[in-house]
Amino acid sequence: MSQAQIIDGKVTAERLRAEVAEEVAALKAQHGLQPGLAVVLVGEDPASQVYVRSKGEHSKAAGMHSVTHRLPADVSQSDLLTLVRQLNADPAIHGILVQLPLPKGLDEKAVIETIDPAKDVDGLHVVNAGRLAQGLPSLVPCTPLGCMIMLRETLGDLSGKRAVVVGRSVLVGKPVAQLLLAADCTVTIAHSRTQDLAAVCREADILVAAVGRPQMIKADWIKPGATVIDVGINRVPFRDPVKAAEGKTKLVGDVAYKEVSAVAGAITPVPGGVGLMTVACLLKNTVTAAKRIAGLEP
Ligand SMILES: NC(=O)C1=CN([C@@H]2O[C@H](COP(=O)(O)OP(=O)(O)OC[C@H]3O[C@@H](n4cnc5c(N)ncnc54)[C@H](OP(=O)(O)O)[C@@H]3O)[C@@H](O)[C@H]2O)C=CC1
Ligand SMILES: Nc1nc(=O)c2c([nH]1)NC[C@@H]1CN(c3ccc(C(=O)N[C@@H](CCC(=O)O)C(=O)O)cc3)C=[N+]21
């Protein structure tokens, strides 16, 4: 049986991070500007914990200023908004990322709309989402950007391809669909109410899974030779009962990687795929934001 090409996030992300590090060094030397990133983590979402760890390491390695604000799950909406406003006003900070999902009781939309659009390195503010939808320059959400870089590297021109995105979140599903459309794909967005999801997925030359359900997408959902981008980050117990009993967990995607690899033409692994690109794109967006705020880039 043929095996899918593995789309290696490590190599591509490393290259992107090296470019960012070079740019940071030049900004420091030529303009005395050090791009600064602030991440706000409320409560204990497992996927967000992975992100915070990975982001912290890499932003420091790239020479950026990086701070993480950890708030308890029961923080009040007004305290959270106060923190966001402080970060908006802080000249050392050029990128603000509030980790999603927020714990129940907090108003995600209100928090995102409080972020200064110029510092919205997640590209979630209506100004950035609207500009993306209209094809205007904007800060583009990191994960969708990372997916597109991997797709272009694997397939080259995407024009005319059938793309199916499973998931319609503001963070991943919708913006990745916008970017695929801008790349001239024929785009279908599927979600929890989609009927016969397997048949919809089988139409895809490009399948992007952003669901948050461990290994939901099976081999018989895949068109032979399709390119599969697995965005899911799910923490699950080990199958090995000894390790499981020790409470050990591992990361898996939304795609049943092993069986799908036997049908797909190319596939991203989890870990080692989209997640690494997300972090690299976050650094890149922070540099872009810093340059624009300093008036160094249009
Ligand atoms: N690798 C990375 O860098 C990143 C990974 N992630 C991960 O990606 C996954 C998705 O994240 P996010 O978009 O924020 O998640 P959300 O929970 O916001 O959205 C999930 C989407 O999946 C849909 N969905 C849920 N269950 C099903 C189902 N059974 N069949 C079809 N569709 C379904 C939902 O549909 P409906 O709208 O109808 O409810 C929704 O649109 C998570 O695992 C997250 O941790 C997220 C960001 C970055
Ligand atoms: N506002 C907001 N924006 C996000 O982009 C966002 C978010 N909230 N909430 C949580 C999810 C999840 N997410 C990840 C990013 C990188 C890795 C990552 O670096 N993964 C590596 C490391 C894995 C490991 O450490 O084992 C990998 O997949 O190889 C994981 C998860 C971003 N998210």
Automatic annotation (TrEMBL):
GO terms for biological process: L-histidine biosynthetic process; methionine biosynthetic process; purine nucleotide biosynthetic process; tetrahydrofolate interconversion. InterPro entries: Aminoacid_DH-like_N_sf, NAD(P)-bd_dom_sf, THF_DH/CycHdrlase, THF_DH/CycHdrlase_cat_dom, THF_DH/CycHdrlase_CS, THF_DH/CycHdrlase_NAD-bd_dom. It comes from the Bacteria. NADP(+) binds at residues 167-169, 233. Keywords: Amino-acid biosynthesis, Histidine biosynthesis, Hydrolase, Methionine biosynthesis, Multifunctional enzyme, NADP, One-carbon metabolism, Oxidoreductase, Purine biosynthesis. CDD domains: NAD_bind_m-THF_DH_Cyclohyd (cd01080). It holds the Pfam family THF_DHG_CYH_C. Gene3D superfamilies: Leucine Dehydrogenase, chain A, domain 1, NAD(P)-binding Rossmann-like Domain. Residues 141-292 form the Tetrahydrofolate dehydrogenase/cyclohydrolase NAD(P)-binding domain. Its EC number is 1.5.1.5, 3.5.4.9. Pathway: One-carbon metabolism; tetrahydrofolate interconversion. It catalyses: (6R)-5,10-methenyltetrahydrofolate + H2O = (6R)-10-formyltetrahydrofolate + H(+); (6R)-5,10-methylene-5,6,7,8-tetrahydrofolate + NADP(+) = (6R)-5,10-methenyltetrahydrofolate + NADPH. Residues 7-122 form the Tetrahydrofolate dehydrogenase/cyclohydrolase catalytic domain. Homodimer. NCBIfam families: PRK14186.1, PRK14188.1. Catalyzes the oxidation of 5,10-methylenetetrahydrofolate to 5,10-methenyltetrahydrofolate and then the hydrolysis of 5,10-methenyltetrahydrofolate to 10-formyltetrahydrofolate. Belongs to the tetrahydrofolate dehydrogenase/cyclohydrolase family. This is Bifunctional protein FolD. It comes from Phenylobacterium haematophilum. The gene is folD.
